[in-house]
Amino acid sequence: AGGGGVVVTRTARTVFDLTHTWRYRADAVNLGTPWRDTAFDDSSWKSGTALFGTEASNPFPYPFPIKTAIPVKTAGGTYVKTAYFRTHFNVTQTAGYELWATNYLDDGAVFYINGTRVKALRVADDPATYASDATNQPDEGTAEVLQLPTNALVAGDNVLAVEVHQSGGSSTDIVFGMALAEVTYTTNVVERSSMPVRLNEVLVLNQSFPDQTGRAAAWIELHNPSTNAVDIGDLSLTDDAATPRKWAFPAGSTLAGLGYLRIAFDPAVIPSGT
What we know:
Elements: E1 4-16, E2 21-25, E3 46-49, E4 52-54, E5 68-69, E6 82-91, E7 98-106, E8 108-113, E9 116-121, E10 144-148, E11 156-165, E12 174-191, E13 198-203, E14 218-223, E15 230-231, E16 236-237, E17 247-248, E18 254-255, E19 260-265
Parallel strand pairs: 4-5
Antiparallel strand pairs: 1-12, 2-3, 2-6, 4-12, 6-11, 7-10, 7-12, 8-9, 8-11, 13-14, 14-19, 15-18, 16-17
């Protein structure tokens, strides 16, 4: 309003959620570093979905159940210090967005994209080894959100590798679960001098104001606060930031000085030519 303004729209696309399938090993074996590489063959590993692990706390602190059980020690009594996880995901471009991971962890983890370490939670050693210690998870069950750098991404197939480390050598629980999203930001700068039309009112869920046909559609109202008519031809509206220009005003459309214009979001109605 007034002299114009800046609107930043945040759009998130799910790359994968907690139901995504991972390959994993948690048998107290030190796999070194080759397991992180994109060409590593993990076909012999077990597979499952989150949450992975064993959780001994009572009451259960996590908002999701353990779906893939991972023991804290082997049948021979050796505690699992580090568990290994691998999965694939696809991207069409490698820049222009942020990559955000939502994690459920006990205790810490190191994250690799295509073999490159991109982030760690509560694991200080760099490089990390099988024996690297994690500091204790202070707030079990809480989702931890991390922004992962995108510099290691490639267009197409990518490998995300995560090693989950325990605090100390005899931890009684281990948990891992992760979801991944792409986040883009669209910035629109509106200067009143060049575009004096305002988005005056928005009715998102219309339950009480039917139009002349008896339909109660969502609508917006535009207002021209200036005394001069404004050409709005080829300007457009959308209700989805990922799909711009869903509807454009026909050429020659104008909004009178100090005028108002209400547009219904009703796909059942043929768009007006005026």
